[in-house]
């Protein structure tokens, strides 16, 4: 069966009055099939609809024809076809935001433990000669001093941050992939790495102040609220305190997201066709890609966290790395790695699996809508 390329609705128009068509057809809305929607249509005329980009390279059939949208009752019986009418950006933003918020809330206790382990040497300067704090010791300390709620301390700004962070990151990755695509339409390994790095830096830059707030809430004692911590930082340290450690953050997130997303895409691409659409396949590839990326990039995350702390002795990444190694040894760069791995693996897996599943559903919905519209076209011809 030939495929019609269907594009997401940006505006609706009634069809021009057809000469032999029955009266009821004139009252129906139509969806125009066109090109790829890259700004202008054929012949220099602006396209009527913004294209869905999930199915790239679809066969263009029936150029210049108009396809009638199925009746509402028929669309209700085919919910996936209705999903194809949702703007692509809205669906992907929603999926990324929801998946990120759920994943972060589930793994919040491990994140709090990791932050305490990472910043221990800065927090206890002058109070203790102990170089580090253990995983179980950090868990016990939180429970003893703050109770059960302490494990989720700082989670609210994290969830507030992760909604736009995940949405911007996943959506911008798709945008950057188009930018770095070669003229022949293929995306090289370098192109995937560059797209991932740009997506990671874009999302980090947009949400960085909330990340600093989350850290201060998580590691500072007391029961201050997010607004209180923000006002204290602004009064005592100035606006620049909200961007402390931004440099190593960008340097750290760029390779992490680049490696994570690139390895995920390449592994998913190498999987046999019959397994590609299965959620367990996405879950397994996401776990492996996140593990590999975390091993490579974790030391930069430790540097970033210590530079974000109030009273940190480090001003640049070049001060921080030798300073941490001198004080804690090479192991100091990997403090908190175990809880971070336990947190990041399910977190990244949930996020990437949800995003990949939504992309599959969008593609399936588009095919379903194409089929319905083609069947209606054949009935009327």
UniProtKB/TrEMBL annotation:
The chain crosses the membrane at residues 240-261, 281-300. Residues 13-23 have a biased composition (Pro residues). It is a multi-pass membrane protein. Solcar repeats lie at residues 87-179, 187-270, 277-361. It is found in: Membrane; Plastid, Chloroplast envelope. One of its GO terms (biological process) is transmembrane transport. Keywords: Chloroplast, Membrane, Plastid, Repeat, Transit peptide, Transmembrane, Transmembrane helix, Transport. The keyword Transcription does not apply. InterPro entries: MCP, MCP_dom_sf, MCP_transmembrane. This is Uncharacterized protein. The lineage of its organism: Eukaryota, Viridiplantae, Streptophyta, Embryophyta, Tracheophyta.
């Amino acid at each position: 069966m030939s495929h019609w390329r269907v594009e997401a609705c940006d505006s609706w128009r009634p069809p021009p009055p057809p000469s032999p068509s029955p009266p009821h057809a004139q009252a129906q809305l139509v969806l125009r099939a066109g090109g790829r929607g890259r700004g202008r249509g054929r012949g220099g005329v602006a396209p009527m609809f913004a294209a869905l980009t999930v199915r790239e390279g679809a066969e263009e059939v029936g150029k210049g024809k108009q396809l009638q949208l199925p009746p509402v009752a028929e669309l209700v019986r085919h919910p996936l076809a209705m999903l194809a009418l949702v703007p692509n950006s809205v669906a992907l933003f929603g999926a990324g935001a929801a998946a990120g918020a759920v994943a972060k809330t589930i793994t919040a206790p491990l994140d709090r433990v990791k932050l305490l382990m990472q910043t221990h040497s800065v927090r206890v300067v002058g109070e203790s000669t102990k170089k580090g704090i253990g995983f179980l010791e950090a868990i016990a300390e939180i429970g003893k001093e703050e109770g059960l709620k302490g494990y989720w301390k700082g989670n609210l700004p994290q969830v507030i941050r992760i909604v736009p962070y995940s949405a911007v990151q996943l959506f911008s990755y798709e945008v950057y992939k188009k930018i770095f695509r070669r003229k022949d339409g293929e995306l090289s390994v370098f192109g995937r790495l560059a797209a991932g790095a740009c997506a990671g830096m874009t999302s980090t830059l947009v949400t960085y102040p909330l990340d600093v707030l989350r850290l201060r809430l998580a590691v500072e004692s007391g029961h201050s609220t997010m607004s209180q911590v923000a006002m204290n930082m602004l009064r005592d340290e100035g606006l620049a305190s909200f961007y402390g450690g931004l440099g190593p953050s960008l340097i750290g997130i760029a390779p992490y997201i680049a490696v994570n997303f690139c390895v995920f895409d390449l592994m998913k691409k190498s999987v046999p066709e019959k397994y590609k659409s299965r959620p367990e396949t996405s879950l397994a590839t996401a776990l492996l890609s996140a593990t590999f990326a975390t091993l490579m990039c974790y030391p930069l995350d430790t540097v970033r966290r210590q530079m974000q702390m109030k009273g940190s002795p480090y001003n640049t990444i070049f001060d921080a790395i030798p300073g941490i190694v001198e004080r804690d040894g090479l192991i100091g760069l990997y403090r908190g790695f175990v809880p971070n791995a336990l947190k990041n693996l399910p977190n990244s897996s949930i996020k990437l699996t949800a995003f990949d599943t939504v992309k599959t559903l969008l593609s399936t919905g588009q095919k379903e809508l194409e089929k319905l519209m083609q069947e209606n076209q054949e009935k009327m011809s």
